[in-house]
Amino acid sequence: MRAIGLSLLLLLLAAPAARAQTVVIDPGHGGSDPGAVGCGLEEEDVVLDIARRTRDLLRADGVDAILTREDDRSVGLSARASFANSRGASRFVSIHANANAGTPATGTETFVYTSASSTSRTMGQQVQDEMIAAWGLRNRGLKSANFAVLRLTSMPAALSETGFINRCDPDAALLGSASARQEMAVAHYRAILRSLGRTPGDPGPAPEPEPEPEPEPEPSG
Q1: What separation in angstroms does the CA of 10 have from each of 1, 19, 20?
Q2: Are the CB atoms for 39 and 165 separated by under 8 Å?
Q3: Which of 22, 59, 62, 163 is buried most, with the most CB atoms less than 10 Å from its CB?
Q4: Helix axis angle, 118-135 to 178-195, nearest 10°
Q5: Taking a C-beta distance cutoff of 8 angstroms, is the pair 160, 140 a contact?
Q6: 124, 116 in Cβ contact below 8 A?
Q7: What confidence tens digit (pLDDT) does each residue in 117-160 have?
Q8: pLDDT tens readout for residues 26-45
Q9: DSSP 33
Q10: 46 vs 6, which has greater pLDDT?
Q11: CA distance 86 to 65
């Protein structure tokens, strides 16, 4: 009996560790706020696609990945943070595209909170490194900012600026490409898994959609 009781205790202690870790992916802007606009693209659209792809990659690897918005809708900044906090998320990553006034800039950068934890800073650097490896744009580095979604979240958090949507070549050309957005999703997937202490695999490109079947010919006569 004593041995059985000890076994049950060990199983109970191990159970929390066996649960999937929760990661919240935050596609920036949405709804009445399109975000940055340029070169025929809107930030809200391209980052939602990257976020969905990142979520799917993480889920395929056993991570409980959820989005702050699943479609084109308005979500407040504090609501995004509250969403992550209420779900006890292990990590929070907000995905954005950049823009500037004047001559269009280029490059990729990542932000963490001004008084971020060492875990947040490490994850932010991992996100930055993986994005640079994916697209090879100018490395604008890891930076600090007092962004609400970084300040109000209670877990390690980072905000990625994938590229400048008003720089048509090369940044916006990448943002507008489905295959390049898949590469950026893989970059976020790899960085998040590394932050969770796991070794990412190579998910490869997204599967091509199934071709539509040819219509049956109409009978003659």
Answers
A1: 14, 15, 19
A2: yes
A3: 163
A4: 150
A5: no
A6: yes
A7: 999 999 999 999 999 999 999 999 999 999 999 999 999 999 99
A8: 999 999 999 999 999 999 99
A9: B
A10: 46
A11: 14
One-letter amino acid at 185 equals: A
Instruction: Report how far residue 15's alpha carbon sits from residue 18's, in angstroms, rounded to the nearest whole number.
Output: 5
Residue partners of 86: CB distance under 8 A and separation at least 6: none
Instruction: Give residues with Cβ within 8 angstroms of 154, minimum separation 6.
Output: 84, 85
- Between CA 33 and CA 140 the distance in angstroms is 25
Instruction: Determine how β-strand 64-67 pairs with β-strand 22-27.
Output: parallel
**Residue 109 main-chain phi, psi, to 5 deg:** -145, 160
Instruction: Give the pair of three-digit tokens for residue 106.
Output: 């280029």
Please, are residues 171 and 108 in contact by the beta-carbon 8 Å criterion? no
Please provide the size of the chain in residues: 221
Residue 208 Ramachandran class (φ > 0 left, ψ -120 to 50 alpha, else beta): beta
Could you tell me the end-to-end alpha-carbon distance of the chain, in angstroms, rounded to an integer? Answer: 83
- Three-state SS at 173: helix
Supply the pLDDT for residue 2: 53
Q: For residues 40-72, b (16+ Cβ closer than 10 Å) or e, as one string?
A: ebbbbbbbbbbbbbbbebbeebebbbbbbbeee
Does residue 161 carry a catalytic annotation? Answer: yes
Cα distances from 221 to residues 200, 214, 218, in angstroms, run: 60, 21, 9
> Tokens 């991570």 — which residue?
63
Q: Which of 161, 183, 212, 218 is labelled catalytic?
A: 161
Phi then psi for residue 49, to 5 deg, are: -65, -45
Query: How far from chain centre, in Å, is Cα 208?
Result: 21
